[in-house]
Design a protein that fits this description.
Elements: E1 5-6, H1 18-31, H2 41-61, E2 70-73, H3 76-87, E3 92-97, H4 102-113, E4 117-122, H5 132-138, E5 143-149, H6 161-171, E6 174-178, H7 190-193, E7 197-201, E8 213-217, H8 255-271, H9 273-292, E9 297-299, E10 311-316, H10 321-332, E11 334-335, E12 337-339, H11 344-349, E13 358-362, H12 369-383
Parallel strand pairs: 1-11, 3-4, 3-5, 5-6, 6-7
Antiparallel strand pairs: 2-8, 7-8, 9-10, 10-13, 12-13
Helix pairs in contact: 1-8, 2-8, 3-4, 5-6, 9-12, 10-12
Length: about 400
Amino acid sequence: MQNLIYLDNAATTFPKPEEVYRFMDEFYRDNGVSPGRSGFDASLEAEELVAETRRIMMEFLNGDGDPDRLTFSYNASDSLNMIIQGLAKKGDHVVTTMLEHNSVLRPLHHLELEGTIEVTHVPFDKHGYIDPDDIKKALRSNTKMVVVNHCSNIIGTVQPVGEIGKICKDAGVLFVVDGAQGAGAVKVDMQAMGIDVYVFTGHKSLMGPTGIGGSYVMKDVTVKYTRFGGTGVRSAQLTHLEEFPYRLECGTLNMTGVAGLNAGVKWINKTGIEKVHNHELALWDRLRTGLQKTDRVITYCAENTENQNAVLSFNIKGIPAADVGMMLDVDHNIACRTGLQCAPKVHEIIKTIDIKGTVRFGIGPFNTEEHIDAAINGVSEIASNNALKTQAP
């Protein structure tokens, strides 16, 4: 692992800042108990950490002032399921896009199969962006919500969520943003962007561990609860509590996850989100330029750094993506992601669905120019191998 060149940060950032590891370890050794369930000091201190993390995440997303409406879950997929199923009702219409991850596509598809809702999927253009006017044209009288991902996990394009949010506000439609790739990577301002619900995960650009995520729900949005369980509050009541945060939480929280998320967000705030983003984009542009100069390499929607996240997908003509990924791993000690990356409709549009996807590089804050140059050289070596030129995807 010490020699590994890790370029799979779009899946999970690695490594984490040292203070994240340290704080998770220290907190769990000293206060690894149930928060708020008892009156002893360690429990109260654990609850204080939960409350502080709700507050700093609310401020990080610029929610509308109530930290209790910041709720925790396992990850973005978990929260998206709760939000989508908690908002959709029989007869509703939902607008989403062809850029979405299965965390959005599958909940919506299951509700559509059940006959609960109708779904419209808006395509993206050849550059990888959603045209807000296409969202507007897709709205109907019974449209309940629009669900859009902030940044694509395959082509890295940052969508015009502020423009889409204004359209939704003018139409009286709820706007839900999948921020799995956005939170921690690009600045989020829920109030300015007109976002009603923003969903995040901790293990990507927020620099926390796996197993922690959540959402912020604005004050005027009502989400039906779909889970029931213990809250440590009013235990004699047999119905689940209606107020936030209990409305979307049940059972004991992942306290090591909350601690890691807390430390991760503090690291981003201390370092500066723009500084991190600019570092990653400079490396992304170096990678883009190098790959696009390499014979037989095809990149997808990788044109310039404007409205771009540090994710790049490519293929080598004549070699299946899975084989390229294996050779990068075995021969060059470079970790990447291959396949459909849980977003099949993206591959339908960029025409890689039939060749089983792409190779994806995801750049993180601890990558260096040396890592990028090694990746370019590794791809170039694979692409120039005459023995591989006859293989077809």
